[in-house]
Amino acid sequence: MQTGPDTAPITHKRVFKLAAPIVLSNATVPILGAVDVGVVGQMGEAAPIAAVAVGAIILTTLYWIFGFLRMGTAGLVGQAAGAGDDAEVSALLSRALMVAAVGGVLLIALQAALFWGAFWLTPVTPEVENLARTYLSIRIWTAPFAIAVYAFTGWLVAMERTMGVFWVQLVMNGLNITLDLVFVLGFGWGVGGVAVATVIAEVAGAGLGLYLCRDAFANLAWRDWPRVFDRVKLIRMAAVNRDILLRSAMLMAIFSSFVVLGARFGTVTLAANEVLIQFLYITAHAMDGFAFAAESLIARAYGQGSLARLRRSVVMTSQWGMGVCVVLAGFFAVFGPAIIDIMAKAPDVQAEARLYLWWMVIAPPLGCAAWMLDGIFIGATRGRDMRNMMALSFVIYGVAAAVLLPILGNHGLWLALVISFVARGITLGSRYPALEKSVGQGQ
């Protein structure tokens, strides 16, 4: 593996080549969720469906804690690659995989307490809890593999090998779907079959990720333990990951509170909000591709200390991001009512969702800056700025919700959420000059 100085021109073709595989891989995620629900739904009972849903949410939340590993790895490895430091590119993957191993083992060791707390926070019927515990008790054993996929994904993004990310997701989700059908519909294993299918898929995904990152292990620096455990580099990695974790926790708190606050307006409005929030998830999945492209290109430019390449990377990826947001806004405006009718069959929910659909039309363009700046700041590993600006945006969201909900009701809730997007874009944007000044100076 020879990185060397990155002299390849930053073009629209290069940006699209980086982004397209991520967009395609993200498209497989909702398909897997639908199949998971669909196969247990064939059992003709509500409890298995609820158990898989609850179990998946619990594990997704626990694994999400380690989501910083993907972003932090992408930024740090990209900078090392941009600087032509092959040894550090390899050592960083070793550090990330060690974090994944330790984190996964801790989750396994603490599973009893973690699951108790999860069911305390999410009370369900005894039948659903028993089935969900069966699901969790099987899936938890692949925690190190599931978390390792974050590390492999970050490394592949940094090395501009996003097609590898696509193949990892395609193999994981494709295998999972196939085994769901075999174990549940073929063998009649029920909820346990869904869990076993996911276990095999996660191990396979981690194995493929290891293979696709094999270049990192061609450099003996991956096991140069004095380098891998270098105190200064470990501290920097920990600081970046800590700040990204805190930033992500506040972002999740905003979306969680959105659901909780929406519940006060009744079941129909809550259901309508849940339908509409899927539009935002679609937008986020589409934007991921160009945010990932920004992470990789900005990290390399930052590692090189090239302000000109950094600026060009920002402009190129942001143009694509805004273009996607405008297209999605138009798509939602034209086809939104039809999408609502497909997702919700209850006439009252359909009517309620249409009342708030226009928020989905304006949200993508207004949120574009926030999504793209996330990728830009991750690439520059400016985790402290991300954390601090998210904290400020979180406060702005809270104030907006407190003021607007009594006046505008559910429209006020949507307005507060959109304000949080705009606040993230403005606050991060205000820190962009400092990011440029730090180019060539480290953190």
Counted by DSSP, the helix tally is: 17
| Elements, N to C (H/E) | HHHHHHHHHHHHHHHHH
**Main beta sheet strand tally, sense and closure:** none
Low-pLDDT segments, ≥5 res: none
| Tertiary shape | globular
Q: Based on DSSP secondary structure assignment, what is the total number of beta strands?
A: 0
The rounded Rg comes to: 22 Å
Walkthrough of the structure:
This protein has 443 residues and is mainly alpha-helical. The protein has two domains: 9-229, no CATH class; 242-443, no CATH class. It contains 17 helices and no strands.
SSE map:
Layout: H1 12-41, H2 46-64, H3 68-82, H4 86-109, H5 111-121, H6 126-139, H7 143-158, H8 162-186, H9 190-212, H10 214-218, H11 225-228, H12 231-262, H13 267-304, H14 307-343, H15 347-379, H16 383-408, H17 410-437
Summary tags:
single chain; 443 residues; 0% strand; 17 helices; mainly alpha
Short description, anyone?
By secondary structure, the protein is mainly alpha-helical. The protein is built from 17 helices and no strands.
